[in-house]
Amino acid sequence: MANVSVFNMEGKEVGTIDLNDAIFGVEINEHLVHMAVLQQLAANRQGTQKAKTRAEVSGGGRKPWRQKGTGHARQGSNRSPQWKGGGVVFAPTPRDYSFKLNKKEKRAALKSALTSRVQENKLIVVDELKFDEIKTKSFAQVMNNLKVEKGLVVLADNDQNTVLSARNMAKVNTTLVGQINVYDIMNGGTIVLTKDSAAKIEEVYA
User: What are phi and psi of 193, to 5 degrees?
Assistant: First the structure.
């Protein structure tokens, strides 16, 4: 099992914790991590782009000139793609970019992402995160104590004082154990877990 240090809110080491190898010590599957990130980014795309084809552009019902004898090339409509104001040949239409990833693949990708953070020493465990009031300065001081400039704080419970204290931090985000995803882990910088959230992750994803 991976053994990592446990820190308090002052940034001092107060012990160690063994992390479950079934989650934090698996063989990293880079392809699944890549696919999980792609899936989330694809699902976030609106896909609302639209342009009109020649069938949708208004006008163009009358033939511009007779078929022969004018010296011009033959034309059937002044809304053909080669005309100014005409339709677009292969016009983009609204579409859904999302695609399916199997549940086992998602879980394997998540475990690979968490394992990579451990191997790169970008995972910190704190004994607890408790704030008596909503104060960004207090939260920023804790992050400074832990030497975290950019991070993702994973909480076991929706502690409003902690969540709202972190809300104005530009490079620090908070999330709950049940909402963690591969993209946030890989893009979040250092992962900060509480002992409770680490235990809950092992309980939910083992």
Answer: -110, 145
